[in-house]
Amino acid sequence: MATYVITLVALLMALFLSATSTNIPLEEKDLRVAVEEMQKANYFTFVMLINMSPLDRKFLGNVTFLMPTDRMFSKAIIPQNAVSSFLHRHSIPSPLLFEHLQYIPTGSVLPSSMPEYLLNVSNGGGRRSFFLNNVRIISPNICTAGSSIRCHGIDGVLRQGSKISQHTCSNSAGSVASASPVASPPLPSPVPFLPSPDDFPVPAPQPSDNSHHKSGSFRFLSDRKLLKFVTTVLVVSMTTGVTV
Prior knowledge:
With 244 residues, the chain is α+β, with helices and mostly antiparallel strands. 44% of the residues lie in helices and 14% in strands. It has helices spanning 2-20, 29-40, 44-52, 70-73, 83-89, 98-101, 166-183, 207-240, and strands spanning 63-68, 91-92, 109-111, 118-123, 130-132, 135-143, 149-154. It has a seven-stranded mixed β-sheet.
């Protein structure tokens, strides 16, 4: 029994040492300092992932790490070939203290170190009401000693499902822009008035007026025929020398 306990303790010590040891070059001072601060705050699993991942220049400075707690890691499965992408998803390419983040309003979007993976901000205004993709920052400003690396503890894991491509964003913006006239229709432009037959109804014919008009026309035509006949007779009489 004693041998079993000693073996178990040795295994736990080996695991602890592997998590706390680092393969970071000595000249990369900021990252080494940040890792030491992570260890003091008991974020050993995140440190282990940094050690497992090939050294990336993006993590040597000007970066903010978002670190799930060891308890959150116990619920996640991270294949070894996905460690690098995990760290890129959980980092912002700028050193931001929590006081800086608090100035970012709800609805804003922050880039991560992974191309096209965006972090949607929900800022409730309090120290424990700042969310990135629905994951809350619970331990702000863990890494502050270095000059260009900051880190904050979060209460969840940023999933791949939050990946948003720029193409999708541009399409969404385009669809919103095209839909805006529907939501708020513009005032109709003046339409030139074009008269139609319906605008001017023709009065119904009056029988009395028409009959009067027709009789008058008939008399006018008869007088013209009579005058023409008289004129013709006079001309014939003059040419023939016959007196009428």
